[in-house]
């Protein structure tokens, strides 16, 4: 099983590079009608997510020596640092940095998952991760990262618009592309998972935190004999649901939250051991939720007071 898990992890990583290369090299779907183009782009994202989730599942369904986990983590960090140092936002490096996020998530999920003494420990841990992500997205570091990405996108759009105004119409497309490449990409760009699209580009859809909780859930499933296929399909479905809701509502909804709570709910109804949660775990779960709610409320009231004072 160990050898098979390692082999599938390696093959999955290679398959990701192949899928990325094929998808971005396809004829652009922008030439199609709006609905078919949208369907093809959604299909590319869903297939890409499914493939990456399978790589994480394979990586967590085997035993890695300590030295290999440290090597993975170091390799993942290097895959993020390299494009930043080179100021290179090319598609191959975006594919590499996305796979690098898996190299970071797998040893972290391995470390957390192996320390779960009981399967019911999944409840307070998942709730803690979910509330930490909610706090981060709306009031913490993830919000600042998203704002940095939005500022970069505005800078790209402004550079493209200015470049297109200064050249003949037949040169506008190439000038816009060159202008977009000239805008330096912030390092935070490489903390997001980039999915290839059949428009010769890739889009950021998830963050490294989402991969970490996936790795943790998959490792917990392997250690405690849970149904890995059920957890795989549940996490993938919850992630797709969160992305769809974000697009429809125009809000940056954290996928980690739907993944965590969706998995707990599904396991609660399908895995009898999950319903044997003890009083200490219940108290811890409620306490963690209450702590983050209090932190968010305090920060909101502080911000509101400052606005009122102004």
Oligomer: single chain
Span of the ends, CA to CA = 63 Å
Helix and strand composition category: mainly alpha
Q: In percent, how much strand structure appears in the residues?
A: under 5%
Number of helices: 11
Approximate helicity band: over 70%
Query: Major sheet: size, sense and barrel closure?
Result: 2 strands, antiparallel
**Total tally of structural domains:** 1
Secondary-structure element string: HHHHHHHEEHHHH
The whole-number mean of residue pLDDT values reads 83
Q: List segments where confidence is low: pLDDT < 50 over at least 5 consecutive residues.
A: none
**Overall body shape:** globular
Annotation, overall tally of beta strands:
2
If you had to describe this structure to a student in words, what would you say it looks like?
This protein has 310 residues and is mainly α. The chain has one domain (2-305). The chain is built from eleven helices and two strands, in the order αααααααββαααα. The chain has helices spanning 2-25, 34-60, 66-86, 91-113, 122-139, 141-165, 172-182, 208-223, 228-249, 255-270, 279-309, and strands at 192-197, 201-207. The protein has a two-stranded antiparallel ribbon. A hairpin with a 3-residue loop joins β1 and β2. α2 (34-60) crosses α4. It starts with a helix and ends with a helix. The mean pLDDT is 83.
């Amino acid at each position: 099983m160990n050898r098979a898990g390692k082999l599938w992890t390696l093959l999955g990583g290679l398959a990701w590079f192949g899928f990325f290369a094929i998808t971005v090299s396809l004829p652009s779907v922008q030439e199609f009608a709006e609905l078919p183009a949208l369907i093809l782009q959604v299909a590319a994202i869903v297939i890409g997510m499914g493939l990456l989730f399978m790589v994480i599942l394979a990586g967590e369904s085997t035993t890695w020596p300590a030295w290999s986990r440290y090597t993975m983590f170091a390799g993942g960090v290097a895959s993020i640092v390299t494009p930043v140092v080179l100021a290179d936002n090319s598609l191959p490096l975006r594919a590499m940095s996305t796979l690098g996020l898996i190299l970071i998530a797998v040893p972290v999920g391995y470390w957390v998952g192996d320390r779960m003494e009981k399967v019911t420990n999944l409840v307070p841990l998942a709730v803690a991760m979910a509330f930490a992500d909610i706090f981060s997205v709306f009031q913490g570091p993830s919000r600042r990262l998203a704002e940095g990405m939005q500022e970069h996108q505005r800078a790209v759009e402004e550079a493209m618009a200015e470049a297109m105004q200064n050249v003949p119409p037949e040169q506008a497309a190439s000038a816009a592309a060159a202008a977009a490449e000239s805008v330096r990409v912030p390092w935070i760009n490489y903390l997001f998972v980039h999915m290839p699209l059949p428009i010769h580009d890739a889009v950021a859809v998830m963050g490294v935190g989402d991969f970490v909780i996936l790795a943790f859930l998959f490792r917990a499933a392997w250690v405690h004999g849970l149904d890995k296929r059920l957890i795989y399909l549940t996490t993938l479905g919850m992630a797709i649901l969160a992305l769809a809701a974000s697009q429809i509502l125009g809000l940056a909804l954290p996928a980690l939250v739907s993944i965590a709570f969706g998995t707990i709910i599904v396991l609660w109804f399908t895995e009898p051991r999950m319903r044997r949660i003890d009083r200490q775990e219940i108290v811890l779960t409620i306490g963690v939720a209450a702590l983050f709610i209090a932190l968010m409320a305090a920060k909101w009231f502080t911000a509101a007071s400052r606005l009122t004072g102004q």
